[in-house]
Fold these 2 entries.
Entry 1:
Amino acid sequence: ESQPQTLGFQTEVKQLLQLMIHSLYSNKEIFLRELVSNAADAADKLRFESLVRPELLEGAGELRIRVDYDAAARTVSIEDNGIGMSREEAVAHLGTIAKSGTADFLAHLSGDQKKDAHLIGQFGVGFYSAFIVADQVDVYSRRAGLPASEGVHWSSRGEGEFNVATIERAERGTRIVLHLKDGEEGYADAWRLRGIIKKYSDHIALPVELRKEAEGEDAGAEAQWEAVNRASALWTRPRGEVKDAEYQEFYKHLAHDHADPLAWSHNKVEGKLEYTSLLYVPGRAPYDLYHRDAAKGLKLYVQRVFIMDQAEQFLPLYLRFIKGVVDSGDLSLNVSREILQAGPVIDSMKAALTRRSLDMLEKLAKDKPQDYAAFWKQFGQVLKEGPAEDYGNREKIAGLLRFASTHGTDGAQDVALADYIARLREGQDKLYYLTGESHAQIKDSPHLEVFRKKGIEVLLMTDRIDEWLMGYLTEFDGKSFVDIARGDLDLGALDSAEEKQAQEQAAQEKQALVERIKQALGEEVAEVRVSQRLTDSPAILAIGRDDLGLQMRQILEVSGQ
Ligand code: ADP
Ligand code: MG
């Protein structure tokens, strides 16, 4: 080894390592999933780079991952012949966390082990999970294309610093050696490792091989390797052959989530366009759902070759929570981010994947209402961005929305527009709603009095985005929405002829009173009218038909406009 160097971990890494080492994970075996997942990513990257630089493959044959163990030495090692790392890359990638929002993420940690373990799972700390079971980790690597003299040895005990040195390394790729902690030596065992690989890495698209135990006279002979996983890209297999558990494991690899997804949709499209997609609805929102630079988009493959993570071109923003893979037969292998920006192929794939996602949500809502309710809690607010962004699909999106209403009592958002329509009163051809700050604030609003009296349901909207949403959602199922706090409320056929007559009469009788109130209030109001809205309250303030709503006014005030 030459030029050894000792460097400190980035503060955030130190904090994470502390959490790991104090075994936040109840599920320690996931370290292997993380390291195998990195090895598979490294193979994907090599394949991609070798499209333009075939010499990177160095003539060497098949890409694979090898897992070895030594019970006597108490080590487990994971080796790949993927892209590898240069010395600089090892320092950068294994000493810092490049992910945006890391500091934010750490600020979210509560100190409650169970909750934090969940957060860490979705943050995907990957490589550092090696320190859950190891008290020393050695990484030997050489980047594809660099000479053998430019290998790197990275090593750390996970205690604040790491060493790097330049080494001679003939093999391309990365070998990671875990020196198991006291009490964790049980992982250096073929049977145990095989079980973990089967469980978490069966879907990995390249072979994950385990060393065969040499027996009798074979002992001491050259190592024999045996593939443990199925090693075919999961999305290329026929739907009927893939088990639910496999779909779920694949999701975890893909999404860096350790909870199960709520639903998935796997489709092969043939004809004018050829592509396969596998889309998932996660069970929980990532901590950075509302960050501008949060991870979003699909993992893109072209004819099974990995092209990029987070290809954002295939789904609209309001579906940014959807995770998945799309494997295109039409795009060129040379696609770059620039090329991906536009074009008829991408456009029609985006339209189709958007429909698929909405269909998947519809199906979830229909088949598993409880899961859909869980989904709505996590992602409902994002879906409400839909009608504005995707006018063409607004009716479909509207069908997926859930609202609180006067039909319920606790303000839970569980009423679909279809439910509302099923409860329309005779003669009702409008969909009534009221917006406000909070459920507590509007549930007893005087605006609701006449609706209560007549038994007409009103949707109660209290999310910040609701007024904005309703600016784009003007009708559903051919019926228009009416904000009951606005302008003149005409209940149409819901008022009988006698009621209408009585209202007119009252208006005439009270004309003198109306004049006096107008004079008293002067410029403060635009108009004073006899209202038929109220049954118990003497008076109410209403908003003009075309004026800004209260929520919008507040948003503008806060933003200084
Ligand atoms: P992630 O996989 O989410 O990027 P990790 O903590 O798992 O985060 O890995 C950090 C980085 O270290 C990877 O992005 C990659 O650049 C590098 N790395 C880890 N393992 C390998 C490997 N086997 N081969 C090449 N690079 C690797
Ligand atoms: Mg990783």
Entry 2:
Amino acid sequence: MIHRSPLPDVEIPDVTLTEYVIGGAARFGDATALVDGRTGETLTYAGLRAAVTAGAAGLAAHGIGPGDVVALMSHNQPSFVVALHAAIATGAAVTPVNPALTPGEISEQLRLSGARVVIAAEPVADKALEVADEVFVLGEHPRARSFTSLFTDGPAPRLDLDPATTVAVLPFSSGTTGIPKGVRLTHRNLVANLAQTRAGWRIGPDDVQAAVLPFFHIYGFTIILNSGLLGGAKVVTLPRFELDEYLRTLAGHRVTRAYFAPPMVLALATAPHVEDHDLSSLRFALCGAAPLDVEVTERAQRRLGCLIRQGYGMTEASPGTHQVFDDDFASTPPGSVGRLSPNTEARIVVPGTDEDVAPGETGELLIRGPQVMAGYLDDPDATAATITDGWLHTGDLVRADEDGVFWVVDRLKELIKYKGYQVAPAELEAVLLTHPAVLDAAVVGVPHPEGGEAPKAFVVTAQPVTGDELMSFVAGQVAPYKKVREVEFVERIPKSPTGKILRRLLRP
Ligand code: 4UV
């Protein structure tokens, strides 16, 4: 059975991502597009458009254009947005890099994506300079050119590209198995997802969006940043989640739409002082990226005075596939992820088969729609294993009720989500296997009080070593959010006859 959205299909404009998001900026003129919630720096829609044009002209004069990849490594700040759309407006693709990555991890993403230049935020510019030949800085740095020094008055480059086949953004995701891979999201994929979500959420010039979840992750990128700009909202950026600052921002900017990941909802449900802030402007709060507890949701929404509903999606789907539409906010249960977005089809199949489950039963979610990626970069095998006949295998177990409301029941794929961030077990296993005392290793997610889940390693040793030694060994080579937080020594790792780790036998 094919499930369909209750909303009619929407038309997907045949334009580039930047034309779609920034092109309309003329309508909003001197209205504020972006505010740095920490420094107070603001950028109007007209200012954003002018800066994107000057940045694109400068990058083009520097030789960046179609076929190139630009790496963008920054926390949320208005200049991230200028650099992002300037690079995309040259016809290049942007690969967003998590600034928390280690130099080794950054170097790997640059190599895999083929990025020619890096645009880095000031605090991480040194790290970028360690691994990249050409770095432009969002701010100032003694050893690198500032990004704004590139700006020229010339017109934005004229592009003759096909939005349907040209990659705009290359985020990295491990998908259902293995190590992180470049996800080829075309202009059309991203424009489609913005047009689709817009049909269910009425974001307008009266809205103020708090943007603390990172723009380098697809949730922050599409759902928070670009959908906000498309609607003409004011987007208030924060570099990281610190509860008091966040609450002051919600109250001070009269935020109407808030976007959470589960650890933020937990903090709001339990922290003192939430009620001391005037949050009466909040009309909409969305949570996604990992499972959210219903009881925690109810506690947090009582304290916020605003309903919290979930969104669902994945990097490979640009990301949105399910939404709780504005009109259904109160009537949709908080534990669900709502209904299918327009132009989106779903099937629920018996895992490992092409057979649909009976109505109401749980199975693996498959998605078909214009937001589904063009494939993984340079990895036809992973692409073929993930998309069959146009159907994207999500690796998530879901069920749908008779009203077309979906619930995420469990995760089938090996991916671990720590605070909503992807952690690929295969990456940690590869690091563990380089330790001289380790003969074999397997990593799975286990429940974690703040992270939701966290990596636990099962290790077979050749010589004595402590769990702490192994955890520090891994921590020295991976970004902090990927750390192994528990080690158990075992005699052997359970494997299938073909050598695949049988993770379900290791999960709690
Ligand atoms: O690829 P990724 O890191 O992508 C994301 C996307 C998040 C969002 C959040 C709000 C939206 O409205 C939206 O459209 C997308 O995190 O990880 C994808 C995996 O994260 C899990 C699930 O296992 C996906 O395959 N995940 C995402 N949202 C939920 C979730 C959720 N609401 N409940 C449970 N798991």
